Amino acid sequence: MTTNDQEQGGIHARHIRADNVVSGVQVQGGDPNQATALISLAQGIRRGDIRADEIVARNLVSGLQYITDPEKASPENLRREVAALRANVEHVITVQEIPDLTDAEDAKDSLTAAEAELAKPSPNGQRVLRKLDEANTILTKSAQAAEAAGKLGALVIKLAPVAATIWQAAHHLFGI
């Protein structure tokens, strides 16, 4: 699958097996004004790319996926989003988009810990938020470094707002 060649980002694969594939923006429910604003946001952050010979996933997103009713989000919903972010962070580590290797490993470890905590029957919201905050800080700092270096196509630039959004959803979910 490829997207319009004039657009940045996209999903490229020989085979895709997924329940939900999004290249661009997916908004479920909500008001049309929010959807319009989110499309503008997605156009601004859509710089990443997913490439593989075969992709097997439940949800595959390149761009922005927005759940309009965060009050109905569950720890499992959040865990899936954290897992997707962690997979993308592993990719940016592989392509060396996070300049400090220790920071890169810290971001990955924090996301792994948050994901594990969210899988528990009664997750500790404070721990989840602390781990997500660390990953968010590292990704934001790395995105700023990439932008300053003129690497506007770097995936880490796209991941920073995703990390911030996940942190905000966790904050809302746990009421902290």
Topology of this protein?
Elements: E1 11-28, H1 32-45, E2 50-67, H2 75-94, H3 101-118, H4 125-148, H5 155-174
Parallel strand pairs: 1-2
Helix pairs in contact: 2-3, 2-5, 3-4, 4-5
Report what the structure shows.
With 176 residues, the chain is an alpha+beta fold. It has two domains: 1-68, no CATH class; 73-176. Helices cover 55% and strands 20% of the residues. The chain contains five helices and two strands; from the N terminus they run βαβαααα. The chain has helices at residues 32-45, 75-94, 101-118, 125-148, 155-174, and strands at residues 11-28, 50-67. A two-stranded parallel ribbon has the order 1-2. Helix 1 links the parallel strand 1 (11-28) and strand 2 (50-67). The model is unreliable at 1-8 (pLDDT under 50).
